[in-house]
Design goal:
20% of the residues lie in helices and 36% in strands. The chain has helices at 201-207, 217-236, 245-276, and strands at residues 2-3, 6-12, 15-16, 20-26, 30-38, 46-51, 58-65, 68-69, 72-75, 81-85, 87-89, 93-101, 104-105, 121-133, 155-156, 165-169, 173-174, 182-186, 191-199, 289-291.
Length: 295
């Protein structure tokens, strides 16, 4: 997706994912672009930010995965280039982003758990302002800051924010990432926000958001041949009443998933207003920043 002087994409195995149902909106406080992408369980992914042209002010970019803020990155007004973020990091360790199957529960104590509100979306926020030296002295960090613990619990099955996947984080790996000596003092210009909502491809197809994969003539012929073979076999073998249990269960699962996502889309309409007026419950991103300015 492209918005103003910026572009953002989600990639898996260095391949940028197709984007569906792209919607652009603007208010006095933000310019927002939203789309759907197909997540793949067990696959690591990254967020690609592209600075397309020089700007008149500095830029501070922050990525939120399921509401969890990653480190903020500072770009000089003249910076033009691409920056990939593939992990949650601090100054000492990193944990890779990965799509994972969401775990549901019927524990009613989690029904009003607000930490699940942002599950199912990846957000890139860009704020603009004066590019200046960071006067804060970065000293030694406590031992507790050398870890990256995040909440990755279950979600109530009746939660309207529930979806098929969520973001999980890999094992901690040693990683040295020094803080930036620069910062951005935000001005009154609108934020630039990219929102990637994600779920399985088959669910997106059931919603009518993603097109169904076309079947080639060769594949259709092979399918017909297999069907003919199956008909011959069916004549000589009496089918069991339980043969269709798994397909029916799968259909019920997809119908429930589609209903949850429809409710999610309806409920997200008023939530935009909350975001515009500072009502987001996202966790704060790390205060350390990295300078993207070229030497």
């Amino acid at each position: 997706m492209i918005l103003g002087d910026f572009a953002a994409r989600i990639f898996i195995d260095d391949q940028e994912l197709p984007e569906y149902d792209v919607v652009v909106s603007s208010t006095p406080t933000e310019n927002r672009i939203t789309c759907w992408i197909a997540s793949v369980e067990g696959k690591k992914f990254g967020v690609r930010t592209k600075f397309l042209a020089p700007r008149t002010s500095g830029s501070a970019t922050t990525i939120f995965v399921d509401g969890i803020g990653c480190r903020t990155y500072i770009a000089h007004p003249d910076y033009v280039g691409t920056f990939d973020r593939t992990s949650l990091t601090n100054a000492y360790v990193k944990r890779d982003f990965m799509f994972s199957k969401i775990e549901l529960t019927d524990d009613d104590s989690l029904l009003d758990d607000r930490t699940s509100n942002d599950i199912g979306q990846i957000v890139l926020e860009v704020v603009h302002g004066k590019y200046t030296l960071n006067e804060q002295v970065v000293g030694s960090q406590n031992v507790i800051d050398r870890t990256l613990r995040v909440q990755e619990g279950k979600v109530h099955e009746r939660s309207k924010k529930a979806c098929s996947h969520r973001v999980a984080f890999g094992e901690e790996v040693s990683h040295h990432e020094p803080a930036s000596t620069f910062t951005v003092i935000r001005d009154n210009s609108p934020k630039t926000i990219f929102v990637f909502k994600y779920t399985r491809l088959d669910v997106l197809q059931a919603m009518g958001v993603a097109p169904h994969t076309p079947i080639s003539a060769e594949t259709e012929t092979e399918t017909e041949d297999r069907d003919d073979e199956n008909e011959v076999m069916d004549m000589s073998n009496e089918s069991s009443p339980s043969d269709d249990v798994k397909p029916l269960a799968r259909i019920r699962e997809l119908e429930m998933e589609l209903q949850r996502l429809r409710e999610q889309v309806e409920d997200r309409k008023p939530s935009r207003v909350k975001l515009e007026h500072g009502g987001s419950r996202r966790k704060q991103a790390a205060t350390e920043v990295i300078d993207l300015t070229e030497d």
